[in-house]
Amino acid sequence: MAVQAEPMLVAGLIEVCRATIAENTDHLCALDRAIGDGDHGTNMRRGCEAVSAEGESLSSLPFPDAVEKIGLTLVMNVGGAAGPLYGTLLMEIGRELRKSDEKADFSQVLKQAIDAVARRGRAHAGDKTLLDVLYPVHAALAKRSPLGDIARKAERSADRTAAMKAMRGRAAYLGDRSIGHVDPGASSCALLTTAICRYLGEHRPQ
Ligand code: ADP
Ligand code: MG
């Protein structure tokens, strides 16, 4: 997928992400209650509402600047571990997009950003975090999978975190007792990926 964007895309993506997190706030909090402190849904909702509140000014920015600013807003508003991690992801995507030309492959941009999240969290694939959705999403994007397949891969990858033992974040304190539960950050990441893929499928041809 080439890196191009229309101004309306930003507003639309912000809204579908906000709506998805609002619909799933309780579910994400329940997942986090099982292996964390129960706030992942409310943390994410606070961040999405802060981004929505800035929606108009964000849509008037060039796409890379808008994405970077969304990341900064998430860092400042989400709280908890997820804020700096999702914030890093978006800030790095924005910065990498600014450096790349119009024909650059988005999967390469995403890879740089995911690696920055991994460095920030000192986490790896298999540690039972949102990275266990982000890396498979990148792999699907890199091989030009259709949007529907990317979304399904994200959902399956989130489900697979149930079998993993948490090595990072609050869930790591539980050790083996974290096994059997889906990671909340992986779940929010899959929900957002699915919402974004659906929106892009409806609003722009691949
Ligand atoms: P907190 O754990 O501070 O309450 P949240 O509940 O909002 O923050 O987010 C928890 C999620 O953040 C986890 O489910 C996991 O996916 C992700 N996470 C936590 N720590 C790390 C880390 N060091 N690296 C990558 N992801 C992490
Ligand atoms: Mg939490």
From TrEMBL:
Domain of life: Bacteria
PROSITE patterns per UniProt: DHAL (PS51480)
Any one GO biological process: glycerol catabolic process
GO MF, one annotated term: glycerone kinase activity
Signal peptide positions (record): none
Name of the protein in its database record: Dihydroxyacetone kinase subunit L
PANTHER family in UniProt: TRIOKINASE/FMN CYCLASE, TRIOKINASE_FMN CYCLASE
Group of enzyme by EC: transferase
Gene: dhaL
Keyword Magnesium: no
Protein EC: 2.7.1.-
UniProt entry keywords in alphabetical sequence: Kinase, Transferase
InterPro entries: DhaK_L_YcgS, DhaL_dom, DhaL_dom_sf, Dihydroxyacetone_Kinase
Keyword Lipid biosynthesis in annotation: no
Ranges of residues in domain DhaL: 8-198
One cellular-component annotation, GO: cytosol
